[in-house]
Amino acid sequence: MPAAVIADIVSSRELPDRRTAQRGLEAALARVAADGPTPERELVPVVGDEMQGVYRELSSALTATVLLQLALPEGVELRFGLGLGDIEEIPSVGGALSEGEAWWAARGAIEKVEQLARRVAPTARTWVATSETATPETVELVRVANSGLLARDRAIAQLSPRTRRLVYGRWLGRTQSDLAAAEGIVQSAVSQALAAAEAGALIEGLRALADAPG
Fold it and tell me: Which domain of life is it from (predicted)?
């Protein structure tokens, strides 16, 4: 079942330099597109501060969104709405229009996570929804995913920008020595930063998603 993804920039109007932030965001999108799962439709800006994309299944969408959270430039955050369901391509004079249950669910999901962040879970950044006609198995999958996403987003929110880069690099398989050289620090500092953040849990979670059948 395809997963539609809608993303937008958190507090975009408060960014001190919107143009620079957009360039950094687009660089992060390109990096994740190269390193992460192959999308059916690449996650790209569409209008204002919104981005849209499509992945073949939920595990790919979850992998891409966590990698993007780790790759974003300092000071830029995204929220994500993921929708499961049918997607229909409708011919149009301006090109095919993508519609369907997955998009409606994704829109509801991003509204839900914004509400959660405003009221009860300030670090919430990702939510999954499905259509009203979804099977009980899909509904249960969404419930389980959302429970884990709240914990995942909180863990990422507590990482420093450097530690996010280190986690991303370790997931790619780069050595601690290589990462230390890139950051201009010693290898022991990399090891300590990863250990202090208990980053191994995030890395193993990413690997589990990337190995999921789909």
Answer: Bacteria
Residue 25 lies in a domain: yes
Residue 138's CATH number: 3.30.70.270
> What single string gives the DSSP state of each residue in 151-204?
HHHHHHHTS-HHHHHHHHHHHHT--HHHHHHHHTS-HHHHHHHHHHTTHHHHHH
Query: Which residues fall within 8 angstroms of residue 87, CB to CB, at 6 or more apart?
Result: 2, 4, 54, 98, 99, 100, 101, 102, 103
Mind listing the pLDDT tens digit for each residue in 164-184? 999 999 999 999 999 999 999
**16, amino acid identity:** P
What is the pTM assigned to this prediction?
0.91
Phi, psi dihedrals of residue 153, rounded to the nearest 5°: -65, -35
> pLDDT tens across 133-166, in order?
899 999 999 999 999 999 999 999 999 999 999 9
Alpha helices in 77-160 (DSSP H): 101-119, 136-157
CB 164 within 8 A of CB 70: yes
93 within some domain: yes
